[in-house]
Amino acid sequence: MKIVIVGTGYVGLVTGACFSEVGIDVTCVDIDKKKIENLKKGIIPIYEPGLENMVHRNLEKGRLHFSDSLKDSLIDAEVVFGAVGTPPDEDGSADLQYVLNVAREVGEHINDYTLVVTKSTVPVGTAEKVRKEISEVLKKRNADIEFDVASNPEFLKEGDAVNDFLKPDRIVVGVDSKRAEDLMKRLYKPFTMNGHPVIFMDIVSAEMTKYAANAMLATKISFMNDVANLCEIVGADVNMVRKGIGSDRRIGKYFIYPGTGYGGSCFPKDVKALIRTAHQHGYDMAVLKAVEDVNERQKSILYGKAMKYFDGNLKGKTFGVWGLSFKPQTDDMREAPSRVIINRLLDAGAHVKAYDPVAVDEAKRIFGDRVEFVNDQYEALIDTDALFLITEWPEFKFPSFKIMKKLMKQPVVFDGRNIYDKSEMKNEGFRYFGIGIGGK
Prior knowledge:
Shape: elongated
Radius of gyration: 24 Å
Number of domains: 3
CATH topology of the largest domain: Rossmann fold
Helix content: 40-55%
Number of helices: 18
Distance between the termini: 64 Å
Strand content: 5-15%
Largest sheet: 6 strands, parallel
Structural class: alpha/beta
């Protein structure tokens, strides 16, 4: 079976590599010629655990190919996945220009039945726009060629995407023909044989499922951050509250950890897009608007704590930052809380020394020389007035408090992920500030 993946970003590259891993012949297509040349050499543009080795392995076995020509790649392909970007417009709606460009190019070059599958996160109704684009191009060609469209949204967690793809909780597929359903069943047979369920539904419901899933997870995060802030005011400990409610099976223990807000490529964009879709249909998503408001406020929570501790004056002070990516196991800094915190510190006249295991190059692109980047977590603490812990990378969880205290000008820690114990930090001689931890 031969398939084509259009787009070699995060979703496209993971999808292509994982399908080739189960024996499918995959060609990944991108208009960026330099990126394609690098991928042919096994040089991948993103950090994702396990992905680089998988790409190398399947390149060597001849199952994974890279090309900058969609026309050539479509020869003998049965399925074409669109995995291009859908960046948010100024009004929050998803920009579909790249999705529709792919549809037009598919219409220009297919010569036999093809199933066109949208893998990108797209608003409800996009499949019909894709169908219309392809139909119009075929009409101009006077070509009577059958095709189907389908929706197959991704549910990949950055930092664990390979495992998520190969061992999914569920595979959601939206189709409107028996032929398309049979083809998708054949494509996903290696996964169903291993017990991973494929849920077939209509296309519109599949499109909505992706947005609804991310919106629900974002809601849990913002809810717990709101609860955490109240806990701090009334003197409760959100860590205890989290354990108390997480044991309820109706709520569950996942995504109820308070912190500095969610970021990344999915949650912020998808929440905005769903709010915008509702608005276009005359409906007000009041809960999601609140989710978004809470999240934006939460990104400044550590900065607010620092301003209060230092009596509103951060000018001339030096702060260490541990963690720049929006979450561990990725170098993605899109909508990352670190960007908000660091910018506010810089605007207040502070000096920032930052360290992250993998995201420093991306951070340099964003901040330039306004931030001092270092190669070691302890180097980031030398002569600092406080530490901001923003991303909970494993190497930050058990540091030497003695070394930290010796290096820092003032032993003050603002912990945005509650990875340290307040009592232990106090015993070690630190002034410690977590999220949602009340009391003295």
